[in-house]
Design goal:
By secondary structure, the protein is of the alpha/beta class. 53% of the residues lie in helices and 12% in strands. The longest helix has 18 residues. It starts with 6 loop residues before the first strand and ends with a helix. This is HAD family phosphatase.
């Protein structure tokens, strides 16, 4: 699986870090604050995934997602204010709640010891990545995004979010490698579709918040792993 690979690209949310559920909590808190409505967390996630996929060609899909929430739940503030409030709520979660997936740091070090370049290829914002690096001791005690990764690509580096393959094409271009030299680690169906659209082999790692699409993930991924311990055994 890893033999002959020169580059491994990691998604962030749900793959390297246990954060998808946190964003469900953030959106639940936002809806509670602005509309005084309690919403099921699994419903929130499915709504968000659907809307972000729908708005993937817009300049700011997350702003359009906030407009969708405003219309659905009758928020008074405009969509820009909703987005600002969403990220204000998220800061506590980003700094103190989000954790690295178990043994992800060991897997990263194993790849580096083999001379494989690693990149972070996420369409979350650089703001979030920097908060993890600067403020979240659950994460920054184990890995350094600046030191452990040869390249950081975030939302600011692409015009199109996943499942568009742009972020992966950018990584290939940066390292001047072919798709066959690269391997992608993802957790969601959207991420796996992005890898497929780029023509790059992809390993899907289990995340509890992708269970509703796990059958499709297993069909479309080249390999499915339960956790990083399993991947560590394959990489050594």
């Amino acid at each position: 699986m890893f033999q002959g690979k020169k580059l491994v690209c990691f998604d962030l949310d749900g793959t390297l870090i246990d954060s998808v559920g946190v964003w469900n909590q953030v959106d639940a808190a936002l809806i509670q604050e602005l509309a005084n409505i309690e919403v099921d967390l699994s419903q929130i996630q499915q709504q968000r995934d659907l809307q972000l996929k729908k708005f993937k060609h817009r300049p700011d899909p997350y702003l359009e997602y906030c407009a969708y929430l405003k219309a659905l739940y009758g928020f008074a503030p405009n969509k820009e204010e909703v987005k600002n409030r969403r990220y204000a709520i998220s800061r506590h979660f980003l700094d103190h709640v989000v954790e690295l997936k178990p043994h992800a740091e060991r897997f990263i070090q194993a790849l580096k010891q083999q001379g494989i370049q690693i990149a972070l290829t996420t369409t979350t914002s650089l703001f979030n990545v920097q908060r993890y690096q600067d403020n979240n001791q659950n994460i920054n005690k184990k890995i350094s995004f600046n030191d452990d990764f040869a390249l950081l690509l975030t939302r600011e580096n692409v015009q199109n979010i996943k499942p568009h393959p742009e972020v992966y094409f950018n990584a290939l271009q940066h390292f001047q490698v072919q798709a066959a030299d690269c391997l992608i680690i993802e957790d969601s169906l959207i991420g796996v579709e992005a890898a497929n659209n780029a023509g790059i082999d992809v390993i899907a790692v289990y995340d509890q918040y992708s269970v509703h699409e796990i059958d499709l993930i297993k069909v479309q991924a080249n390999y499915f792993a339960e956790d990083f311990t399993e991947l560590l055994s394959l990489a050594q």
